[in-house]
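Q: What does the assembled structure look like for these inputs?
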Amino acid sequence: MGMAQVVLVTGVSRDLSARFARALAAEGDIDVIGVDVAPPRHELGAVNFVRADIRNPAISKVILGSQVDTVVHMATLATPGSAGGRSTMKEINVVGTMQLLASCQRAESVRKLVLQSSAAVYGASPRDPVKYTEETPPQAPPQTGFGKDSVEIETYLRGLARRRPDVVVTTLRLAHLMGAGVDSEIARYLSLPVVPKVLGFDARLQFLHPVDAVEALLTVTRSDVPGTFNVGADDVVPLSQALRMMGRPPIGVPKRLAPALAGVARHAGLLEFPPDQIDALTYGRGMDCSRIAEVTGFRPRYSSRQALEEFVALAQPGLLAEQRVDRALDSLASLLAPQARR
Amino acid sequence: MSGAEIIQSAQPRRPPGAPSTFDFARLLEEFVAMASQTLTEFGVDWEEPLNDAVAFLRSRLHGSYSVDEFGFDPEFTTRVFLPLLRPLAQSWFRVEVRGMENVPETGSALLVSNHAGTLPLDGMVLQTVVYDELARHVRLLAADLIFATPFTSDLARKTGSTLACQQDAERLLAADQLVAVFPEGFKGLGKPYTDRYRLQRFGRGGFVSAAIRAQVPINPISIVGSEEIYPLISNLPVLARALGLPYFPVTPLFPWFGALGFIPLPSKWIIQFGEAIATDELPPGAADDPMVVFNVTNQVRETIQHTLYSLLMQRRSTFF
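A:
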């Protein structure tokens, strides 16, 4: 199995997918076809954009017509958001993947499949080990939303791997994306002026900088590495620390009231927070990312902390931003030690 | 009326230079100046600790401290948590430490201890004495209930504890940490006072196989004194089940005296750090041999039980 020649990338109207497709196409020796239902919102460079819906069997024509040998599936939605409701989101995620995989299974030319999956497949619970390896079974598998969709999508992919043993199937479970200008639910949550936080818990947050996410995707697209890989920075940032770095005062919410509050926030159009996200922001979640380093040599350049620092630098300064805290502390110090001022 | 006139008319009518009737900031400043002068006269240096405290606050409020992958916050632990526990260990329980030389100063080891006292103060006291003698942090393996409960979850992670599971134990041992485990779990903590110092069943030996796999020494630790801090007279299982707790304690002070019931009785503590049991000479694959694991577990258990009995003989009385 040689180098990829024609690569199809789904979901290219979204940020990470667009960045990846552009970087892949920039290498020159590969034809990159970008697919999405929505028109591209980002500069796609040398990518050939095809407006197509993966839920529609017509996607087969694109794959067969261009003799696609590698498919990189990145069209999974984390939140209903622009799609409409949860049922539309589920349809895009699950039915879309099923249709895409059905087309791939039929196409003789397809030799490789790469899936952008998520750390959400591990769920989050107080019985979790501090870091999940790819083999550790989830203590509390996600029951709803994006987590559940991701689990189902991975299952369909394993089905394809069984039926087409000649296809190299690679799944990347990505940590929360974080970095300058990242727009995600977590990013929007951390940017609220006052941040509701589950009382008495401090979630460990593991991040992945988009630059590293793209690099990991390029690595597994360029070489044949079948299997499932966790991708994230090695360190974690506790939610409380993340909020201090953001200068956002937290407000404690009892665990039982959190889903109701998330519901209110959803109706107010502030935030889209499904229950599995609440668990992840209560107990936290970590992935052991040593396997991808061992197999491919890929190591993230940004730590979780650096990725967050980059985000903080471009975010609106919070109520408790560094300068304000410093001023308050300075006046406190000079008040308590009057002779020091003279 | 122009803007300037409004401001002028809003000024209180008093002669210039006269003190305001109530200036809180001024009052506070004078008070602090007086207090600091008094402290300086008594030879207390107050500026340095103040600068130190402000620097600490600054680091906390900016979030410019670091935690490890378990959520352990060494700065918080050494600056806030351990100083709060120190008087409890040193003055209240008057902990006598024996055999600390058996605990390695570098590299990992598994500390296995008896567990008692209704509330897990023994773990925190252990953390304090080991840090004070060796300047090493003990990483406790704790029950999942701790991590499912608000506040204890947060505190446990910040102070270096993690879930008692094979994976986390192996990860900590691989990172050259001192790991402490209480294999009796809630069976030890919540046993009636009449069963004091009688070791309960030791889990399934998962901790021993983790130590054997990592080839790290096991130190048996015997703690005397923890049983008497909250003598468990009775347990209310129905109430415990309703609250989702492993037991609902009835002690001489709890629940009768409410919050006062949380004051531990000032028993005299002795902590014996036992000689290390080496695991690096066992044949490869020993960690997966149930017979080996069972034998080592038993050896640890017997050592702790015998040491407990002999320490009890040596202790003059429960409280002195």
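The radius of gyration of chain B is 26 Å.
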